[in-house]
C-alpha cells in the first residue's frame, strides 16, 4: 500500500516543483530573551498545599522510596 502511494506521488511530481514538507513557508518565531521580574520562593510557594522548605511537596508517582 505504501509503495503504491509513493508510486502515485512519483507519477504526479514534476521536476520544476521543489519538494516541500509544508504547503506554506515556515519560519522560526523568536523574541529577545529579556529577564523580567521573577517570583521569590515564598511567593511561588504561597498557594502550595504542602511544602518542604523552598520546594513543593508532591505525592510520589514512580514508587520511589523516601
From TrEMBL:
- SUPFAM superfamilies recorded for this chain? Glu-tRNAGln amidotransferase C subunit
Q: Please give the superkingdom of this protein's source.
A: Bacteria
State a single Pfam family of this protein: GatC
InterPro entries referenced in this protein's UniProt entry, alphabetically:
Asp/Glu-ADT_sf_sub_c, GatC
The name under which this protein is listed is Uncharacterized protein
Q: Which organism is it from?
A: Homoserinibacter gongjuensis
Amino acid at each position: 500500500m505504501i509503495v503504491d502511494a509513493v508510486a502515485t506521488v512519483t507519477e504526479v511530481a514534476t521536476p520544476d516543483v521543489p519538494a516541500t514538507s509544508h504547503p506554506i513557508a515556515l519560519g522560526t518565531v523568536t523574541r529577545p530573551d529579556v529577564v523580567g521580574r521573577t517570583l521569590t520562593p515564598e511567593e511561588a510557594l504561597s498557594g502550595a498545599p504542602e511544602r518542604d522548605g523552598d520546594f513543593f511537596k508532591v505525592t510520589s508517582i514512580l514508587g520511589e522510596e523516601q
